[in-house]
Design goal:
The structure is a homodimer. Chain A is α+β, with helices and mostly antiparallel strands. Chain A is 57% helix and 12% strand. Chain A contains 21 helices and eleven strands.
Chain lengths: 587, 587
């Protein structure tokens, strides 16, 4: 089987033709030197690393898995070396703060790098991904001393990060957690408790591992208001900034998982571990959510990454595998890509991945504007759009990503079920992304329960107006056959939004959440297909084949995938009663 | 976690209240003594075996897997003993021909037994399941000598069966297979070739293993018309009917699979193996399809079985797991079954499983009528309906079954991704059912390409008329809120059917196939929900809680699941062009 080909050309198309990256960067102080040409050259290098170093470790890492012996975690052969090479090449700090040694490149590049890493090796990507999340939380909430001691080595990749939130009885509901932090009297705290599902909780890369741990101070109130965030390193930091004494934490076990076997997911025991408060006491969840939002976008990108890789493999197989006569009567055996139903599976994945990548770049641009634009109003506006899109990207990308992995596996028939082809690993690895960093149900609740109400309830209308303006602008080029169905789907979404606003309450919101989020995502994908089609058509007959295919994929999307909005709209119109009628005992 | 509870009460409801099993049996010669009371007592015993013996082996068998050493397959601890106990209890021959020692009970009981086995241990179920398929092929196509020598011991379960069809380059397209059979001059043939994906190809249960092998005779024409079916036992049968010399076949390897790890899926080498022709030369595919149709229904039932088991575990977890405040404001932590989105996941699985079971029983009743009704016209009519439903049951049950496994896993959050809870095994095991015995895409092509055209193209209309008559009859009791949406969905299906008839051709058929099959299945499920609701409502207020819930689940189905028919109808109306526009090179 062919290996992964980084879609840098498609990324370049998005940056130069669809989303006008150069103009966006010009408006951001500090990014004047950043443009698409630079971005593409960086992405080409990143693609080489992903395809050349990380992808070859993906299947062996799944087979070998991680082991725990004598309290030490061993990652699969080659992973530690690859991580060191990744860090030395500077990829850990790509979008990191230059004040602490980062390269300070925009979020747009980060998410495209993340996509390629996720395509090549999802398990691997969690090491730098979680470190970046920890860096964000420390950078936003910790004091100057902690920042100075930890950020440079985390941004360089010398040290890694881990998020220690979940406990056996506290998952979605972190208010139930029981890990305790007691002041030592010297400004530090002694942390005691057991956390589960801790990605990158330990490894054999050398360096330090910086745990961000949610815990309760003595006499803290019950529930989420009693939770604080602490930084607890695996090794205490010595006076010279290097590694000091071993901190009082240990790996209780490695979780035995469905997938991401090259990722050591740990049960962590904190046994009076020394830690320092990050942010205000009782504001731990707030500090953690700084980390979580960036992580949620990252997890969404994992869904996209797996979809891209799985679709590529399925396409390669479908071109080579000869079975049956052609549907047009061509005597067989013909490549199975000739069969309409195989094409349908392949096009579904392609239509998702291309639209998702565009939407990810658009969202990352909003993040860059929210962080760096000189105009506070522009920053606030962009920030709202990022808040709105975060649960959509996390949940929809991982749901469609999983579905794409399953459909791509199906293209290979029995060979897709056999481990050696690697397709079933995509399915197993993709599955976690629908669950961690807040299940997709939690994301949907976040969208309907919190995000729709932002800006006094006007945020969704502001976003929809933006889509409408783009549809109107693109219509002369993209054509009514494409634009009208998307506009109609948007009208369905607006109706569903209005219904939720009119019949509020947590029960109706919860009953609508998942279907509403999917409706929202389909409209957003349609919007991006209109923009991509218009951009490709504007290039005329000289466009390369990869761009001339865009309007054809767009047509597939509106004709065969977008109709799902009809079903979601109709289902949502019925509201909660059918969900709530059954007594818990009679399920 | 609680273990599997066989849904015998629900089965009894279907037999006594919904599908009038007793009246159906009365019309069938030889089944006069069979009634629901007998059936339920048999099913209760079967449920005890499934829950008590097979389910406890399911997780350990997945962890241990099968091994191949020195050419011998070892199944996981306990499996061989369980198989022997299963056979000794008479379960292998439940629906087997009494002429060869079977109990001759109706197909209805067989599929309900199959469901419980599949819920408890899908890997295990393949041993008796494939044996039964082999028995059907031998029973219908082999000569009297072969039948006498093999059927009694296969029906008793002393010997097992395997289907050897697929080769590395011949999967869906069996016409490409290259295994050869050369006459030995004594009525037997020497079979040489390598087959892959052979379930139950070898094991350590003792006894014999009867391989049905597709191969080509010398000078056979190319393609499917050159294929013949041969019976090749692992051990030649001695003069006394017992085990003789070892036949020239060996296990080349065990496939390394995503799931069904307790099932030894073999690469089989036939090295001049001695075999005997089953049926006419060149008619091998025909003989094999006798086996395949029964197997396809069995595989569909596997999807139902996994869905039932996964839903049960998810419900149990959702009742016990405490997280968050109630959506109605109840201070938390509350059981997560209080949350609407969790209910939605649970209800989706329940709405599928109940409807699928009803549809399976209905289909099995048609099979019993097709096999045993004294009136040839009734037999032919029932046979047509079975032919129509076979691809629907196989593909839709396994697709919805997989989706139910995934949704049930999601209910457990991170715990669902961890092996110890068993939910991820359901997902991995369920996945194979969408692939083997003809991928679900192949099933959909069979439905649109062959089945819709049966009886001169009148078969679908005959089936739809049957549904309409039932809807009309049930409407006064079930109510318009339930019946009208199902009738509207049926109208969509009729339109889609008419479009396919008008714009025929393999390209349009292939482009429609998967969506059409799902539309068909949703209408059939709706039909069963109307019948089940009407039956439950007819019992009045005295109905037990498990039956009083039926109309509520029916409401969920029509309000939240049936709207998918809108999307499928709209997508189908666009036809093939959007699928065929892209050149193979530019995917």
């Amino acid at each position: 089987m062919s290996t992964y080909a980084p879609p840098v050309d498609d990324m370049a198309f998005l940056l130069t033709r669809v989303l006008d990256f150069d103009r966006a960067m010009t408006a951001l102080p500090g990014f004047e030197e950043v443009n698409a040409e630079l971005a593409v050259s960086v992405l080409e290098e990143a693609g080489k690393f992903a395809a050349g170093v990380l992808e070859p470790l993906n299947r062996p890492g799944d087979e070998e898995g991680c082991t725990l012996a004598d309290g030490r975690v061993t990652t699969p052969k080659g992973v530690a070396e690859a991580y060191r090479a990744f860090a030395e090449a500077g990829w850990c700090g790509l979008s990191g703060d230059p004040e602490y040694g980062g390269q300070g490149l925009p979020r747009v590049l980060q998410i495209l790098l993340d996509e390629m890493i996720s395509s090549a090796n999802l398990s691997f990507g969690l090491f730098p991904g979680l470190t970046r999340g920890a860096v964000e939380a420390i950078g936003h909430h910790a004091g100057a001393d902690l920042k100075a001691a930890y950020l440079p080595k985390m941004i360089s990749g010398e040290w890694t990060g881990a998020m220690a939130l979940t406990e056996a009885s506290a998952g979605t509901d972190l208010g139930l957690l029981s890990t305790r932090a007691v002041p030592n009297g010297d400004g530090s705290y002694a942390i005691t408790g057991t956390k589960i599902f801790i990605s990158s909780g330990d490894h054999d890369f050398g360096g330090n591992i910086i745990h961000l741990v949610l815990a309760r101070l003595p006499d803290a109130p019950r529930g989420v208001k009693g939770i604080s965030l602490f930084l607890a390193p695996k090794f205490l930091v010595a006076a010279d900034g290097g590694l000091g004494a071993r901190n009082a934490m240990s790996v209780g076990a490695l979780e035995h998982k469905m997938g991401i076997h090259a990722q050591p997911t740990c049960v962590m025991n904190y046994e009076g571990a020394t830690g320092w408060l990050v942010g205000e006491p009782g504001r731990g969840l707030n500090a953690m959510f700084t980390m979580m939002n960036a992580e949620r976008l990252f997890v969404g990108i994992q869904g996209l990454g797996i979809a891209e890789a799985a679709n590529q493999k399925a396409v390669a197989y479908a071109r080579e595998r000869l079975q049956g006569n052609g549907p047009d009567g061509t005597p067989g055996p013909v490549p199975i890509i000739a069969h309409p139903d195989v094409r349908k599976m392949l096009l579904s994945g392609r239509a998702f991945a291309d639209a998702a990548r565009a939407l990810a770049v658009w969202t990352a641009l909003q993040m860059d504007m929210a962080a760096h634009h000189p105009d506070a109003a522009v920053r606030a506006g962009a920030d709202g759009l990022v808040a709105l899109m975060t649960p959509v990207v996390k949940a929809a990308f991982t749901d469609f990503g999983f579905e794409t992995a399953v459909a791509s596996q199906q293209v290979l028939g029995g060979h897709g079920y056999i481990r050696e082809w690697g397709m079933e690993q995509f399915v197993r690895d993709a599955r976690i992304a629908q669950i961690y960093e807040g299940t997709n149900g939690v994301q949907a609740m976040d969208l309907v329960g919190r995000k729709l109400g932002m800006e006094g309830g006007t945020l969704p209308a502001r976003f929809f107006a933006l889509i409408k303006a783009d549809l109107d602008a693109a219509a002369p080029v993209a054509g009514a056959a494409l634009v009208t169905p998307v506009a109609e789907a948007l009208a369905r979404l607006e109706r569903a939004t209005a219904r939720l606003a009119a019949h509020g309450g947590a029960v109706e919101a919860g009953a609508a959440a998942t279907d509403y989020l999917r409706l929202f995502a389909l409209v957003a994908f349609g919007w991006m297909w209109v923009r991509m089609s218009a951009a490709a058509l504007a290039l005329g007959a000289d466009a390369p084949p990869a761009l001339r295919r865009k309007p054809k994929i767009a047509r597939f999307f509106v004709e065969r995938m977008l109709p799902a909005t009809l079903a979601l709209d109709a289902a949502l119109a019925h509201g909660a009663p059918a969900l709530m009628a059954l007594e818990a005992e009679t399920f």
